[in-house]
Inverse folding.
């Protein structure tokens, strides 16, 4: 850690220029607004910008693109290089999940989950590392994994119409946890710190989970409730700031203790 860091600026993230995928989603929006509130610049990527469109500030740059599209992703990084956008952090937040039963799983669902949840974060990290930067501190990469990259969903809590997490979703999040360890080994050479967070179930305000699912999920969680998106922000500030200067390769479970027993 840089010796100039005092307790007062230990959690400062205002110097960051953060590339954030899935910025238009429920967690992405919360992260985007929090980073802007704390003075950081956000380069927000999503294939739809309907929510994020409403935020107007010079500190927010919006890019409508599909992270599985090679041409669109290369176009973004060519633009960032040309404009000398010295990005200092990457948050791999975009992900997809399919909720149909395993016996009906299609090749499209398998391939698309792999492409969004595994291949795109690898391509983003590859391109991010090629960007120039003048930061004295380490650049930061944060991968948004899931408890289901660590434990299996407990199928007794789902009713027929509930959104069951798929095997390929869990496998993709387990891959992201492994990739976090893999890329963390490059910390010295690339001047990066790579960590992940693994959220537990988050209450969805716009499209709430069923009452029965919430009740059964809550009964299995020591805190007896789902998370809310704001509860993921503290750990992200920690991981972006210099307070995490010796945290590397970790996946931090933010699950109210769900995976403790
Ligand atoms: N919601 C939960 O309960 C929960 C729990 C654990 C982990 N997570 C993880 O948190 C992250 C955010 O989840 P969320 O609940 O906000 O989901 P969300 O569906 O609300 O947001 C995901 C965003 O990613 C975008 N996206 C998907 N595919 C894309 C593509 N190909 N190109 C560009 N953008 C694309 C979507 O348009 C969407 O805006 C995900 O990684 C998810 O796996 C969520």
């Amino acid at each position: 850690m840089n010796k100039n860091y005092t307790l007062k600026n230990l959690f400062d993230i205002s110097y960051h220029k953060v590339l954030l995928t899935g910025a238009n989603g429920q967690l992405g929006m919360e992260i985007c607004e929090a980073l802007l509130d704390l003075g950081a610049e956000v380069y927000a990527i999503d294939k739809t910008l309907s929510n994020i469109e409403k935020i107007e500030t010079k500190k927010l740059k919006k890019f409508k693109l599909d992270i599985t599209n090679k041409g669109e992703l290369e176009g973004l990084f060519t633009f960032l290089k040309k404009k000398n956008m010295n990005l200092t952090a990457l948050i791999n937040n975009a992900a997809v999940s399919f909720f149909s039963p395993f016996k009906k799983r299609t090749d499209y669902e398998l391939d698309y989950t792999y492409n969004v949840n595994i291949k795109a974060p690898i391509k983003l990290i590859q391109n991010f590392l090629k960007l120039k930067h003048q930061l004295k501190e380490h650049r930061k990469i944060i991968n948004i994994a899931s408890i289901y990259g660590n434990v299996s969903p407990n199928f007794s809590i789902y009713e027929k119409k509930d959104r069951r997490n798929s095997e390929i979703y869990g496998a993709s999040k387990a891959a992201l946890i492994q990739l976090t360890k893999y890329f963390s080994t490059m910390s010295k050479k690339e001047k990066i710190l790579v960590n992940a967070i693994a959220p537990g179930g988050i209450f969805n305000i716009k499209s709430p989970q069923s009452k029965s699912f919430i009740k059964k999920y809550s009964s299995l969680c020591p805190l007896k409730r789902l998370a809310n998106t704001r509860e993921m922000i503290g750990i992200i500030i920690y991981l972006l700031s210099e307070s995490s200067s010796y945290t590397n390769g970790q996946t931090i479970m933010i699950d109210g203790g769900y995976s403790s027993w």
